[in-house]
């Protein structure tokens, strides 16, 4: 399997290999030691409560500080990590970082602060993360499980076999919050929203109202989610017009460049300290 392959080094390249394939194999090789060499970083993107303008949550987004290639965005290495199975180790590490940050923000600023992590399908299969280990870590930190949100995609729910469903249920029963990421880009049926006891639904940026029809659609999704007891986070909110429309449509939370780019945990701490200042941090990194 792909996961077993990931445990072997790829130390030669057949001449017929495509350049892109070679590049991926090199990256997969380099990734094996990246975790031990502490090359991964986690940035946190603020999530605002739209009604109050308060910063109440953040999403953990991984980066790879590559020794020669600079700071790599998830799109440049997560697919490789998923293919080799390295995502399991990376995901566990991101989870622990996220939990530490949630603890720090709760102690310093807001006892209800939540941090979200992204989940890949491989993490939910056999050999993926261990729910009991995650819960032990939270207990060690004295962090309530509902301080953590696990984001999954529609395709993960669609592909869900019994192992995946079992883990989703275990997280839910432990009190960890579940969020459906990138909603509107896949083929999730409304029935899924109810079946998986979701706490949050994240509306994909591609779904945001560019016109009246889009606004109606957004409003309908928000109303439907609320009917099912699910709160809505709009992603990729880039301008004040979108922010105002979402607020008018009853959307609960917003995340996007109009509020802040992904930032370090120290910057998050600063941001939460400067409650009086309007939040507007712009960084050029991915
Ligand atoms: P996502 O979970 O949907 O995360 C939102 C992405 O949108 C992030 O990209 C974020 O930087 C970007 N974004 C935020 N606000 C705006 C905006 O206003 N406009 C636009 N155009 N984009 C915005 P990023 O950090 O590059 O992450 C990309 C994807 O990589 C994430 O999408 C997520 O699916 C995945 N990812 C990130 N971290 C992890 C991780 O630790 N584990 C796993 N499995 N996947 C991860
Ligand atoms: Mg996400
Ligand atoms: Mg998303
Ligand atoms: Mg995504």
Automatic annotation (TrEMBL):
Boundaries of every EAL domain copy: 24-276
Domain of life: Bacteria
Subcellular location as annotated: Cell membrane
Protein name: EAL domain-containing protein
Organism: Pseudoduganella rivuli
């Amino acid at each position: 399997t792909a996961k077993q392959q990931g445990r072997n080094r790829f130390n030669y390249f057949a001449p017929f290999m495509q350049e892109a394939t070679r590049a991926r194999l090199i990256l997969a090789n380099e990734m094996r030691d990246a975790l031990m060499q502490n090359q991964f970083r986690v940035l946190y993107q603020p999530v605002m409560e739209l009604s109050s303008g308060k910063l109440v949550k953040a999403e953990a987004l991984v980066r790879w500080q590559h020794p020669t290639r600079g700071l790599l965005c998830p799109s440049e290495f997560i697919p490789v990590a998923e293919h080799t199975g390295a995502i399991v180790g990376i995901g566990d590490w991101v989870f622990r970082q996220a939990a530490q940050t949630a603890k720090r923000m709760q102690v310093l600023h807001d006892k209800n602060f939540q941090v979200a992590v992204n989940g890949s399908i491989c993490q939910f299969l056999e050999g993926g993360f261990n729910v009991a280990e995650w819960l032990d870590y939270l207990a060690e930190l004295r962090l309530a499980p509902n301080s953590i949100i696990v984001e999954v995609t529609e395709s993960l729910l669609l592909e869900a076999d019994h192992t995946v469903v079992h883990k989703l249920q275990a997280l839910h029963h432990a009190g960890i919050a579940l969020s459906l990421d990138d909603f509107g880009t896949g083929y999730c049926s409304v029935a899924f929203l109810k079946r998986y006891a979701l706490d949050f639904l994240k509306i994909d940026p591609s779904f945001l109202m560019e016109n009246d029809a889009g606004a109606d659609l957004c409003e309908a999704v928000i109303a439907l989610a609320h009917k099912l007891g699910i709160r809505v986070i709009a992603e990729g909110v880039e301008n004040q017009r979108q922010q105002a429309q979402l607020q008018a449509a009853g959307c609960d939370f917003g995340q996007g460049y109009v509020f802040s780019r992904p930032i370090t945990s120290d910057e998050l701490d600063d941001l939460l300290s400067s409650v009086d200042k309007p939040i507007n941090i712009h960084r050029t990194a991915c």
